[in-house]
Design goal:
8 helices; disordered N terminus; mainly alpha; globular; single chain; 221 residues
Length: 221
């Protein structure tokens, strides 16, 4: 079974009963991400490829470790609220971090536009998270998807350069969108006391992150 600390309890930031598997996948994802990122940076080509791999890798590890820490049970309310803000802010960080290797692989104005737009949007999203922590979840989900759509104008150039990378980015983006829909609607909610909509949302997020990791590996190695 699972450690006592992972058994159901009420969330410190709401009155909803905590599913038994809340945060379990986060711990495994964070543990796998660290060596995966080290390998990515170590094998990346020199120059911009290494830099972009490092930016992406740091954003991925920060999100996954932050999520794993936040979803551990037992935090005092004040601490849990701050960890939740960081958890949500890190999503914007990862979106921009994931786009960075793509932007640096492009040429000319497309590279500058994508890099500038993504990191400006990430900064604004992080400010929004701390200034308006109780924003409607549908709004937050829509902002995540909208930010991801900034990559669409670069799709033809990416497909021309590397068709397999384009397909992996597209597949990962679709998984992220499906996860955002589940998060916004809180549905489906298969087993609320064990594995609810939030756990399903995280499965889609982690699956998307894996697909994008493979895309970035193909792009920078």
């Amino acid at each position: 079974m699972y450690p006592r600390a992972l058994v159901s309890r009420t969330s410190p930031t709401s009155s909803v009963l905590r599913p038994r598997l809340r945060g379990v996948a986060d711990i495994y994802a964070a543990a796998l991400a660290v060596p995966a990122v080290v390998a990515l940076v170590a094998y990346a080509r020199e120059g911009a490829a290494t830099l972009s791999a490092l930016v992406y890798g740091v954003s991925l590890v920060v999100l996954l470790v932050g999520s794993a820490v936040y979803h551990l049970p037992g935090w005092p309310l004040r601490t849990a609220l701050w960890l939740r803000k960081l958890d949500h802010a890190n999503i914007y960080l990862l979106i921009a971090g994931t786009a960075t290797p793509l932007a640096l692989a492009l040429d000319g104005p497309a590279s500058v536009w994508l890099l500038s737009a993504m990191w400006l949007a990430a900064g604004l999203g992080i400010i929004k998270t701390f200034a308006w922590p109780h924003a409607p979840r549908k709004l937050s989900a829509a902002l995540y998807v909208l930010m991801g759509c900034f990559t669409l104008p670069t799709a033809p150039a990416l497909r021309a350069a590397a068709d397999e990378v384009f397909l992996l980015f597209a597949a990962g983006g679709l998984l992220y969108v499906l996860g955002a829909v589940i998060y916004a609607l809180r549905w489906p909610n298969p087993a609320p006391l064990v594995f609810g909509y939030h756990e399903l949302f995280h499965v889609f997020v982690f699956s998307a992150a894996l697909v994008h990791y493979l895309a970035i590996w193909a792009l920078v190695v």
